Amino acid sequence: MNAIVLFGDVIRSRRDASGSTTWLRTLTAELEATSPPGSLVAPFEFTQGDELQGLLAPGADPLDAVLRASFNPDRSPMRWVIVAGEVDPGTGPATQRTGPAFIRARERLAEAVARRDNLLMSSGDPATDALLDRLAPVLAEMLDDLTRRQMTIGRLLVIDGLRRSEVADRLHVSRATVSVVADRAHIRSITRLASALRELFDAGWTAAAPEPAGWTAAAPEAAG
Asked: To bridge 167 with a disulfide, which of 29, 67, 156, 183 should be the other Cys (CB 3.0-4.6 Å)?
């Protein structure tokens, strides 16, 4: 079966093992509560090594977990990999599953550490993945640079989908203040880049998908 494997590794978790565990417990609960019906192949779970693992259905938003974590003012810094591919049939949470996509995700996580990139994505299509390799780390850099105030406002705009005027009312500040913070955080650019990455990832996965058994291309009709 095909699915999306997601790994989220807390960076330097040994410096605050208890805090990292608390953070992952909070994030896991949010992801489980907010995932649309049918979007999860297996429940999210994290390991004792402070690594979140998820297994998403085809068509699920591969960046939802990344954005929810990044716009949380109480976040711990994380490194993410997202890989589309084949996984073995099974039951249980993502930490108990396996398959080629899990192996590839583990390889990509090691690559991310070596490259000091905090987001890598693999769709399975070489041409698309070459683009994803250049663009995905940029999104992570933009998210990592957010201040706590920018995260608070960005979360209401991006995750909760509120308008700037609604965010101003919620936080009891002026709309101008919300606009200044959002513009300095490059919220519009973050959402545009995230949307482009989703489209690239989906297109690459479609291009890399194996042809159904017995399928053969139709011969072109002769001109004339």
From this structure: 156
